[in-house]
Specification:
The structure holds 2 protein chains of 2 kinds.
Chain A: E1 11-18, H1 23-36, E2 40-46, E3 55-63, E4 78-81, E5 103-107, H2 113-116, E6 122-126, H3 128-136, H4 143-154, H5 159-172, H6 177-193, H7 221-224, E7 245-249, H8 259-263, E8 269-271, E9 277-279, H9 289-293, E10 299-303
Parallel strand pairs in A: 1-4, 4-5, 5-6
Antiparallel strand pairs in A: 1-3, 2-3, 7-10, 8-9
Chain B: E1 7-11, H1 12-22, E2 27-30, H2 37-48, E3 55-58, H3 62-74, E4 80-83, H4 85-90, H5 92-100, E5 106-111, H6 125-129, E6 136-139, H7 143-158, E7 166-171, E8 179-183, H8 187-193, H9 219-251, E9 258-261, E10 268-272, H10 277-289, E11 294-299, E12 301-303, H11 307-314, E13 319-324, H12 334-343, E14 352-357, H13 367-379, E15 384-389, H14 393-405
Helix pairs in contact in B: 1-2, 1-7, 3-5, 7-9, 8-9
The chains are: A alpha/beta, B alpha/beta.
Chain lengths: 308, 415
C-alpha cells in the first residue's frame, strides 16, 4: 500500500527495556507495520554481552525516502520506555537526546512520573504491564503493547497494518496461534487507548551540533592499558532490578550445606555468622541456579511481576 | 512482510543466508561467533527443514572450518562459510593455505573489532588483516548489497580467469542485526545468472589420485605459483565488471568496484568503506544543501584494489579525505595508505590528501566528526599522512568517568 502523503521528516523511534521484555520484537513489529504502510524503514537492536534483565535498546527509522542513517539514534523523535525503573539507571541513557524529542512514552501506571521526569517533550504514560498481565498472563511480554503505543503516537500507521505486523512478527518466533491472537488484542487495546500526537519538525533540521572533536594525547600505561585497578568495583553495578524471578530461602528447611553459596555465579549469596546463606537482592539477577542446586528444594521462586 | 516489489525486511545476516540459499550451495562448514551466528543458524534451519539440499557441518574451530571449506571446494562442490573477527584471524593460516590451492568458495566475514580490549562492535581491522591472503575482497553497504554480492561472488570465484576464494564483508550490528527492505531475487533468475557449479580445475575423485597444496621447497617454483595467484586476483577486476553487467541485466541493480556518490562537480571527496558510507552520504547531502561541492567514493572492492577506478574518480579533485574504520598502530589508516599509493604517480593528484580514523569498535561517527573532517580538508593546503583520530569531547568525558570507575587517577587528563 502507498501512504496518501509523504512524511515531512524522518521519524526516529528509540525503544528501551530490559532483556526479555520484547523490545527488539516491538521494534520489528513497528517497522514491519510502517513498511507495510508504504514507508522506507530500518530497525536495529543494540545489546552487549549481558543477559535477560539488562538494559537493551532498539532503533526504528521511518521515512518516505531512502534512509542514510545507521546505528545509534542520539536525537530521537519518540522515546518508548518499556520499563520505568530504567529512568533510575543512568547507564541505560534512556533520556539521551530527549531535548529533541516530540514525545516520551513510559509504560507506567499513572502520570505521577511527570513531576519526577524533567523533559521538554510531551510525556505520555499508559500501564501496558497491567494489560499484558491481564491478556497474556505475564508481565514481561511487552512487545505488542510497546509497538502499538509507538504506532499510535506517530499516527502514520493504520490499526490493520499494526495487527497484521503483530501476527507476522510473532509467527516468525513460532508462537502459538492463540498467544498471537491475544497479542493482537493487546495491541488493539493499547492503540485505542492512546492519542496520535503531533511531531514537530525541529528534529528534521538538526540544531548546530554541540559535540567537538578532541585530540587524544599519549597516556601512560597505568592509565591506558585496559586494566581495572579497583578490585570489587562490580558491586557498584546494581543488577538486582534485572530479576524476573526472585529466589527466597526457606530457613526452616535450610541445612546450611552451602551449595547455593558455592553455585551463585554472581557471588550474590554470602554466609552469615551461623553459616546460613543470605541473598544480596541488590545484585541477585534471578538466574535461579541456587534453586536448581539446593538438594532440599528449600529455595522457592517468587514472581517479580513488578520487580522492574 | 512482502510488498509489491517483492521486498522483505531482512537483517544483513539473513540476507547473507539468502544469498547462500539462492546460490544452491552444496556444503557449509560452520562455527558460531557473534555477530555472525544468525547466518549459520538460518542456514541450519533451512537444511533441517529440507528447504536446502546439501551438507551442513559444524566444525571445532574456524581454522578447521576454513580448511574444510577449501577441501570441499577441492572436491568440486559449491561451498559457503562465514565467520567474524577473532574467528577470521584464528583462521588466518588456513586462508593463505586454501587460496594457494586456487579453489573457489565464498567466505562471509561480519566485521567486528579485534581484541584487546574485547568488544562486539564493528570495525575493519579483522577483514583488512586478511587483505593479503589471496582472497578477492568485497565490502557491502546495505543488506540488499550483501545478498547480491554473495551471488556475484560465486560468479567471480568460479570464473576460470580467477579460480580463487572471495570474501564478502559487512559490518556487525550496523548491517548484521539491522533489518532493511531487501528484494529476494527469483530462484530461476538466479539460476540463469549463476548456473550450477562445474569445477574447471582438477578435483578429488574416487580412483583418480592427485596431490593438492604440495610442498615445493624452492623459491622460483614457489614464486611461479604466487605470481599466478596475483594474476588471478588482478583478473577479478575484469570478471567483476562482467558479473556486474550481467547482474544488472538480470536484476536491475549495479555494483561497481567503487561507488561514486555526487562526485560530478565535487572539489572535495570523502573515501569510506562499508555501512557507514551511508552516514557519509547523509553528510554529503547536508553539505550540498549548504552549497558545498562535496562527494563520496565508497571502496567496495578492496582486493584486487581497483586502481584505475580510484584514479579516474579522485584525480583532479582539490581535497580527498579517507576515513578509515581501522587502525594500523604505528602507521594509521590502512586504506589511506593504499589510496595514497595509487595516486602517488598521478601528476594531477589532489593537493590535499588527508587521513582520518574513526568508527572503531562500533563507535559512531557523528555529524560533528564529519563536519570536522570537512573543516580540516578546507583548511589544509597540503596533504599529510598523519592520521586524525576522531573522538568527541562527550566521549572523552565518558572515558574519564570509566577510567575513574576502574580506579585510575584523573590526573594526566589528555585533551
Amino acid at each position: 500500500m502507498r501512504p496518501d502523503h509523504e512524511l515531512t521528516l524522518m521519524l526516529r523511534i528509540r525503544f528501551h527495556g530490559r532483556g526479555g521484555q520484547g523490545v527488539k520484537t516491538a521494534s520489528r513489529i513497528l517497522d514491519t507495520a510502517a513498511f507495510a504502510s508504504g514507508f522506507q524503514v530500518q530497525d536495529s537492536p543494540v545489546y552487549g554481552a549481558e543477559r535477560r534483565g539488562a538494559a537493551v535498546a532498539a532503533y526504528v527509522r521511518i521515512d518516505s525516502g531512502p534512509i542514510l542513517e545507521r546505528g545509534v539514534i542520539d536525537r530521537p523523535d519518540l522515546i518508548v520506555i518499556g520499563d520505568e525503573t530504567l529512568l533510575a539507571d543512568g547507564g541505560a541513557g534512556v533520556l539521551v537526546g530527549q531535548q529533541a524529542a516530540s514525545a516520551v512514552f513510559v509504560n507506567a501506571p499513572t502520570a505521577q512520573l511527570a513531576a519526577k521526569l524533567e523533559t521538554a517533550a510531551r510525556l505520555v504514560t499508559l500501564d501496558i504491564t497491567e494489560r499484558t498481565l491481564r491478556l497474556l498472563g505475564k508481565a514481561s511480554a511487552l512487545s505488542s503493547g510497546l509497538a502499538a503505543a509507538a504506532a499510535r503516537l506517530i499516527g502514520e500507521i493504520p490499526l490493520e497494518q499494526l495487527e497484521s505486523a503483530v501476527k507476522s512478527e510473532l509467527a516468525e518466533l513460532s508462537l502459538a496461534e492463540e498467544t498471537i491472537e491475544r497479542n493482537v488484542a493487546l495491541a488493539r487495546e493499547v492503540f485505542q487507548a492512546l492519542p496520535a500526537i503531533e511531531f514537530r519538525p525541529a528534529t528534521g533540521e538538526r540544531p548546530a551540533e554541540q559535540a567537538k572533536v578532541v585530540r587524544l594525547a599519549y597516556d601512560p600505561p597505568l592509565r591506558s592499558a585496559p586494566t581495572i585497578l579497583a578490585p570489587g568495583n562490580a558491586a557498584q553495578r546494581k543488577t538486582g532490578d534485572w530479576r524476573v524471578e526472585r529466589p527466597a530461602i526457606d530457613y526452616e528447611r535450610c541445612t546450611r550445606c552451602g551449595l547455593c553459596f558455592v553455585a551463585c555465579p554472581d557471588a550474590a549469596i554470602t554466609l552469615d555468622e551461623k553459616g546460613y546463606p543470605v541473598i544480596d537482592y541488590e545484585h541477585c539477577k534471578g538466574c535461579m541456579i541456587c534453586r536448581e542446586q539446593c538438594p532440599l528444594e528449600a529455595i522457592e521462586t517468587e514472581k517479580e511481576t513488578r520487580s522492574w | 512482510m512482502v510488498t509489491a516489489q517483492n521486498q522483505k525486511l531482512l537483517t544483513g545476516n539473513a540476507a547473507a543466508a539468502w544469498g547462500a540459499r539462492l546460490a544452491a550451495i552444496d556444503y557449509v562448514p560452520a562455527f558460531p561467533i557473534t555477530p555472525q551466528t544468525e547466518i549459520i543458524e538460518t542456514l541450519a534451519r533451512w537444511f533441517d527443514a529440507g528447504e536446502m539440499q546439501g551438507k551442513f557441518v559444524t566444525l571445532d574451530s574456524e581454522h578447521s572450518m576454513v580448511m574444510a571449506a577449501g577441501a570441499a571446494a577441492a572436491a568440486g562442490v559449491r561451498v559457503f562459510t562465514a565467520t567474524s573477527s577473532q574467528g577470521l584471524v584464528y583462521a588466518m593460516e588456513a586462508l593463505y593455505t586454501i587460496s594457494g590451492w586456487r579453489v573457489p568458495l565464498v567466505l562471509v566475514n561480519v566485521s567486528r573489532a579485534l581484541a584487546s580490549p574485547i568488544t562486539l562492535g564493528p570495525d575493519h581491522n579483522d577483514v583488512l588483516a586478511a587483505r593479503d591472503a589471496g582472497f578477492v575482497q568485497l565490502h557491502c553497504e546495505s543488506c540488499q548489497e550483501v545478498l547480491d554480492t554473495v551471488l556475484m561472488a560465486y560468479r567471480i570465484a568460479e570464473d576460470e580467469r580467477v579460480s580463487a576464494p572471495v570474501l564478502v564483508n559487512f559490518d556487525g550490528f550496523f548491517l548484521s542485526f539491522t533489518r532493511e527492505p531487501v528484494e529476494i531475487p527469483d530462484a530461476e533468475a538466479v539460476r540463469a545468472f549463476l548456473p550450477r557449479f562445474e569445477a574447471k580445475y582438477p578435483t578429488f575423485r574416487a580412483s583418480q589420485p592427485l596431490a593438492q597444496g604440495a610442498a615445493v621447497l624452492d623459491g622460483a617454483t614457489y614464486t611461479y605459483f604466487r605470481y599466478q595467484l596475483h594474476h588471478a586476483l588482478r583478473n577479478a577486476l575484469e570478471v567483476h565488471q562482467q558479473a556486474a553487467d550481467e547482474f544488472e541485466a538480470h536484476f536491475g541493480r549495479r555494483y561497481g568496484p567503487v561507488e561514486t556518490y555526487r562526485l560530478e562537480d565535487a572539489d572535495t571527496v570523502l573515501v569510506m568503506a562499508g555501512a557507514f558510507a551511508s552516514k557519509g552520504k547523509a553528510a554529503v547531502n547536508r553539505w550540498r544543501e549548504q552549497g558545498r561541492n562535496v562527494g563520496l567514493l565508497r571502496l567496495r572492492m578492496v582486493r584486487p584494489l581497483p586502481d584505475r577506478e580510484l584514479v579516474a574518480a579522485l584525480v583532479g579533485r582539490r581535497a580527498v579525505g579517507v576515513i578509515d574504520q581501522n587502525l594500523s598502530p604505528g602507521l594509521g589508516g590502512i586504506l589511506f595508505h593504499e589510496i595514497a599509493g595509487v595516486l602517488a604517480a598521478e601528476e594531477n593528484r589532489p593537493a590535499v590528501l588527508r587521513s582520518f580514523v574513526g568508527g572503531l569498535g562500533g563507535k559512531d561517527i557523528s555529524s560533528a566528526e564529519f563536519d570536522h573532517v570537512l573543516a580540516t580538508l578546507d583548511g589544509a593546503k597540503t596533504g599529510s599522512a598523519d592520521p586524525e583520530l576522531l573522538f568527541t569531547d562527550a566521549e572523552w568525558r565518558q572515558m574519564q568517568q570509566r577510567l575513574a570507575v576502574a580506579g585510575k587517577s584523573l590526573e594526566a587528563a589528555t585533551p
